[in-house]
UniProtKB/TrEMBL annotation:
This is Aspartate--tRNA(Asp/Asn) ligase. The record marks H33, G83 as: Important for tRNA non-discrimination. Its main location: cytoplasm. It comes from Bradyrhizobium nitroreducens. Belongs to the class-II aminoacyl-tRNA synthetase family. Type 1 subfamily. One of its GO terms (cellular component) is cytoplasm. The gene is aspS. Transmembrane segments: none annotated.
């Protein structure tokens, strides 16, 4: 018999009854039933109930076992007594009568429990992550992640893609976030950067004639902590294709992403016919460029009904042609209590309030706004937005460029509070026609709004003759249930157009050559039209595991202060290390 095990803790079945076997694993818990000890033994594969009674030679040692001891047990498989089967376990019809126990690794007092999934302080969980990962739900999440990545690889290969690995030490690049810099020992005063994404390398692969690339790529960004991104590093399904239009990318990737969701959705419906929503429409209807389409509410511009009305606050705002009034329908929300609650919520979000109209029996509008604008205008609003008796609508007014995010939050809040958002499905969509540029208020200049390497719609002619802030790009996102899970674009592969695009954003030609020399040179020697995307592995796994915390699907994450409490990173470098790197530390004054 093998030194440690003849079977795993998830392997035994009724067909093994009568066999003498050996198991090794962790003591999950010990139960004393009238002097008979029941020990649940756990390993990566499952859990087996082991029984030790006072007649067993192993009994005296079994009495000393505690949770998380690693032990080896020899014994005989037998049928569980009638009425004691556990249908939740694959091994639930059998148990092992133990004759011998060997302690392979004793365990001290645990800083956090492994049995059960109760909440525990995050700093303790991350410091003792090796214990945290033994917990059933988290352990299963990690294995689901493994299977999802395997599914992605299989599906990408099935679509004719090839997996290539791109460098980790590279040059700094303006991808929209800060780089992690790595000082060079053999080139004093110079630095490598960890890649924010393999963007330039995957485009260079297309220049090299490889046609269809993918990679499960690690990406590194020195960003402030965000709720929807792990600090420091994350993984993406990175994709690039040659000789393609935007439609070709959509046709290749929709089946991959849909297939992954269907495989791991645990029976929840997954949208098959993805909607395509222009960026401007997404902001206007949903107040978000990553709308949760499980929520049926669509906002509408109802400015005309308030223009010149008795509600002077809105009427005066609308004298400025850039201002608008948007309505957020609230089906079933036509109670004073709910409307007042939404108004209080808006004030908690830093807003002066949230105007509303309720529709009573007979279709009559009620509330301060209805009283001010009169029954005709109230009826016209109702006819436009399709509200019924017992419904309400909330109103946001001002410059849409400044209020669209709040209106989106209000839409989400109404959907949640009125149980309109269907939590039991996955709704995938493409967001398309992103603006190429945006105005940077801080720097008072035109800047790239999304990806600097994208092809503008209209090409070089648009760059030369169009107001930059009106140029749309061949850029697109995939959204799911209120999260952006992928982003991509058709690339700007024309050297003159690339220089012009960067020139509009304030980069001179020499700076483009200096910063993107490899790609710029490659474009001079036969560049194929190409495009691709990158899907966030972590967010996809998070959605499919049914959690809203990325730490629940990652092996060894940092905390929200970007610190690795398990390994003690970041840590100070020694004087010798700094000297070898020709680096001095200039700490901020306290």
């Amino acid at each position: 018999m093998h030194r440690y095990r003849s079977h795993t803790c998830g392997a035994l079945r009724e067909s093994n009854i009568g066999e003498t076997i050996r198991l090794s694993g962790w003591v999950h818990r010990v139960r004393d039933h009238g002097g008979v000890l029941f020990i649940d033994l756990r390993d990566h594969y499952g859990l087996t109930q082991c029984v030790v009674d006072p007649d067993s030679p192993a009994f005296s040692l079994a009495e000393k076992l505690r949770s998380e001891f690693v032990v080896k047990m020899d014994g005989k498989v037998r049928r569980r007594p009638e009425g004691t089967d556990n249908d939740d376990l694959p091994t639930g019809k059998v148990e092992v009568y133990v004759s011998e126990i060997e302690v392979l690794g004793p365990a001290g007092d645990l800083p956090l429990p492994v049995f059960g999934d109760q909440e525990y302080p995050e700093d303790i969980r991350l410091k003792y992550r090796f214990l945290d990962l033994r917990r059933e739900k988290l352990h299963q999440n990690i294995m689901t992640r493994v299977e999802i990545i395997k599914s992605m690889r299989r599906r990408m290969e099935g679509q004719g893609f090839f997996e290539f690995n791109t460098p980790i030490l590279t040059a700094s690049s303006p991808e929209g976030a800060r780089d992690f810099l790595v000082p060079s020992r053999i080139h004093p005063g110079k630095f490598y950067a960890l890649p924010q994404a393999p963007q330039q390398y995957k485009q260079l692969l297309m220049m090299s004639g490889f046609d269809r690339y993918f990679q499960i790529a690690p990406c590194f960004r020195d960003e402030d902590p965000r709720a929807d991104r792990l600090p420091g590093e994350f993984y993406q399904l990175d994709v690039e294709m040659s000789f393609v239009t935007q439609e070709d990318v959509f046709a290749a990737m929709e089946p991959v992403i849909t297939g992954v969701f269907e495989e791991f959705a645990k029976g929840k419906p997954v949208s098959k016919n993805w909607r395509r929503i222009p960026f401007a429409e997404a902001l206007r209807k949903y107040g978000s460029d990553k709308p949760d389409l499980r929520n049926p509410i669509e906002m509408q511009d109802v400015s005309e009904h308030f223009r010149g009305s008795g509600f002077k606050v809105f009427a005066r705002m609308l004298e400025d042609p850039k201002n608008q009034v948007w309505a957020i329908p609230a089906p079933g929300g036509g109670s004073r209590a709910f409307c007042d609650r939404m108004n209080s919520w808006a004030q908690g979000e830093g807003q002066p309030g949230l105007g509303y109209i309720m529709w009573r029996e007979g279709g009559e509008g009620a509330g301060p706004l209805a009283n001010n604008i009169g029954p005709e205008r109230t009826a016209a609003i109702r006819a436009q937005i399709g509200t019924k008796e017992g419904d309400a609508a909330f109103f946001v007014a001002g410059d849409p460029d400044k209020f669209w995010k709040f209106s989106g939050l209000a839409r989400n809040k109404v959907g949640e509070e009125l149980n309109l958002t269907d939590k039991e499905r996955f709704e995938l969509a493409w967001i398309v026609d992103f603006p190429m540029y945006e105005y940077n208020e801080d720097d008072k200049k035109v800047d790239f709004s999304h990806n600097p390497f994208s092809m503008p719609q209209g090409g070089l002619e648009a760059l030369k003759g169009q107001d930059p802030l009106t140029i749309k790009a061949f850029q697109y996102d995939i959204t799911c249930n209120g999260y952006e899970i992928a982003s991509g674009g058709i690339r700007n592969h024309v050297p003159e157009a690339m220089v012009k695009a960067f020139e509009i954003a304030g980069y001179g030609e020499q700076e483009v050559v200096d910063r993107f020399g490899g790609m710029y040179r490659a474009f001079q020697y036969g560049a194929p039209p190409h495009g691709g995307m990158a899907a966030g592995v972590d967010r996809i796994v998070m959605l499919l595991c049914g959690t809203t915390n990325l730490r629940e699907i990652s092996l060894f994450p940092m905390n929200q202060q970007a610190m690795d409490l398990l390994m003690g990173a970041p840590s100070e470098a020694t004087t010798k290390q700094l000297r070898e790197l020709h680096v001095r530390v200039n700490l901020p004054q306290k």
